[in-house]
User: Fold this.
Amino acid sequence: MQNCHHQLSKHWSIVAVLLLTPLWLWGTIPILPTFDDWTSLTSPSFEPLFTKEHFLFFGYHWRPFDAIIGYLLGLNPQQLFPTLNHCLIVSGHLGCSLLLYQLLGMLSFNNASRNIATLFFFVTPATMATVMSVDGINQVYALFWGMAAFLVYVKLEKGKYLVWFALIILATLCKENGLMWALICPILAYGFRFIKHDQLKKDLLIGLCIMAVYALAIMLLPKDIEIHPEYIPNGLKAGKSFMKFLLTSFVTVDYVWLLYQPERNLWLAAMTLLLSLPFMYSIFISHRQLFNERKMMSICISLFIAVAPHILTSYSMMHTYAGMPMIALMIAVGIDAYGRHLTTVIVSCLLLLVSIVVIDIHLWRESLASGLIGKSMAVETVKKTGKPVKRVYLINIDEEYSKLSSFCVLPYDAFGWGLAVRHETDYQWPESIKDTLISRTPDARKTARQLGLDIIKTNEYDCVWITDHQHIDVIKR
Assistant:
C-alpha cells in the first residue's frame, strides 16, 4: 500500500490526466460541426475510399488518414459524426500527453518538472482549439506519431532508422507538418546530448532525405492543385502569424473576452492574464539565462520548425498544438532550475490553474453554442423548405465582426454554407448548394431577397436560402 501511494505521488500528473479524460470526452462529444468541419476529409464521405481525389490527393493536401476517417464516418454519419471525431481527438490528446510524460522522464527531468509540464500540456487553453474541434484529428495524430518517432530515435538501436522513417511518414500522412519531426528529432537529441555533432550532421542529412522522398511522392501523385491565395506565403503575413503564435502559445489569456467583438470584456480578459503572469515570469523570465544553454536553444529551434509550415502558409489557434510539446519542455527546464525550492513554482502554478479552468470552461461553452447555432439554423431551414429539394442557392449576409478560431464562429459559418442541412436530412438532400456572400448594409435583407427572386426565375435552382444572422428566409420556386 505504501508503495502504491508512493507511485501515485510520483506520477500524479498521469493520474490527473486519466481522471480528466472522461470529463474531456463528456464535454467535447456534444460539440457540433461548424465552418470547415463540414468540408474537410474528416467529415462523412460517400465516395469509395481508394480514389485519386480523396485517398491520394485532395485540394493541396495528401492526408490519407483523414480520408479513412471520412470513409468510416460515411458508413453511418448520423451516429458517428462527430462523435467518432471527438473520441479520436481526445484519445489522441491523451496519447500525446502520455508520450510527453515518457519523453520528459527519458530527458531526466525531476518529478515536479515532469508532472507540471505534462498537466500543463493536457489542460492549457493553447491546445483547446484542437481538442474541442471536429476536424483536429490530423493535428493530434501528426504530433502523436512525431513524438513517438523521437522516442524511437533516442531509445532504439537495432532498426532505429527504419522505424524512425516509418513513423515520420506516418505522421506526415496525417498532416504535412508531421514531416518536421525529421529535423526536430536529431536537433532535440543533440540539445540533450544523446548524440554528438558528427551524428547530428549525418542525421539532419537523413532527415532532409526523408523530406525529399515525401516531396518526390507529392510530385508523382496524380493531382490538380489550385492553391488558395490564403496559403501563398508572404513576409507580412508570416510576420503576423509569428506574432499570433507567440501570443497564443506563451500567453495564457481568454481570447474570447479579449478579441471577440460581441463578447469583449477587457476586465475579465485582464483577470485571466494576471493570474497566469506569475507562472510565466517564474519560468521564462526569472531564469532567462537558460535560453543561452544548448538544451533550451535546441528546444526553441525545434519549436519554430514545428510551427513553420503553419506560420508560412495559414495560421490559426488550432495550429499552436504542433509546438506545445516544445513549450512543455521549456517549462520543464524552467522548473528544473529551481531544484528543491519549489514554493514559488507551486503558488504560481495554482494561480495559472485557476486561469486555465476559467478559460477552458468559457471556450467549451462558446464551442458548444456555435455548434448549436448551426443545428438550429438547419432545423429551421428544413422546416421552412418543407420538402426535399435538389439544387439550392444560398445567400449569406455578412456580419459586422470576425469569427474567433473554432470557438466563436459566425452564424453562416456554423450553418456550414448550408451543409448542416445535409446532415440534418441524413445526407439525403440537397444534392448541390451554391453560395454567395453579400455585404451587410441597411438594405441588405431587401437586396438579398430581390437577388433570390431573380435567381428563382432562372429555373436553375429549386429554392433559395437566405441567412441573416441566425434567421433563415426561404424562397421557393
